[in-house]
Every structure is written in C-alpha cells, then in structure tokens.
Amino acid sequence: MSKVQDRATVCPHCKKPFDGELLAEGSRHEGFKCPHCRLFVPAERANGADGATS
Ligand SMILES: [Zn+2]
Questions:
Q1: Please, which residues bridge with residue 40 across strands?
Q2: pLDDT at 32 (0 to 100)
Q3: Smallest Cα–Cα separation from 40: which of 52, 54, 29?
Q4: What is the SS3 assignment for 25?
Q5: Residue ranges covered by each domain of the chain
Q6: How many whole angstroms separate alpha carbon 38 and alpha carbon 22?
Q7: What spacing in Å lies between the alpha carbon of 38 and ligand 1's midpoint?
Q8: From the CA of 17, how far away is ligand 1's center (Å)?
C-alpha cells in the first residue's frame, strides 16, 4: 500500500525526469501527470521498462 516510489519518473513525452505522485492507483488509468508538459504518463511507461530509447 504505502510503497514509496523513490525513482524519478521520466516523461516519455518530453523526456524530463519528475517526481510524480501516482494517480488512480490500482485502476487501469494508473499513471502520473508530467509537471513539465502536463501530459499523462501511464505507470507502465513511467517505469521505463520496454524502451525504444532515443
Ligand atoms: Zn512531460
């Protein structure tokens, strides 16, 4: 429940790291809102797992 997400999330839209609060946790709309570009970042993208990097 109280998992602290210490890692910075990197926005896939603007590529900037931010410290986001997880929204709608547990739902399929789970994710973050980027404070830089204000776009929604799905939690699965935010983990930076599968990557078309660069
Ligand atoms: Zn962004």
A1: 33
A2: 92
A3: 29
A4: coil
A5: 9-46
A6: 14
A7: 6
A8: 8
The token pair that represents 39 in the structure block: 């776009």
Q: Rounded to the nearest 5°, which phi and psi values hold at 44?
A: -70, -30
pLDDT of 15 reads 94
Distance from the alpha carbon of residue 6 to the mean position of ligand 1, in angstroms: 18
Span 11-54, pLDDT tens digits: 999 999 998 888 888 898 899 999 999 999 998 877 655 545 44
> Is the full-model pTM beyond 0.70?
no
Rg of the chain, C-alpha, whole Å: 11
Type of residue at 4: V
Compute the distance between CA of residue 6 and CA of residue 19 in angstroms, rounded to an integer: 8
Residue with tokens 């109280």: 2
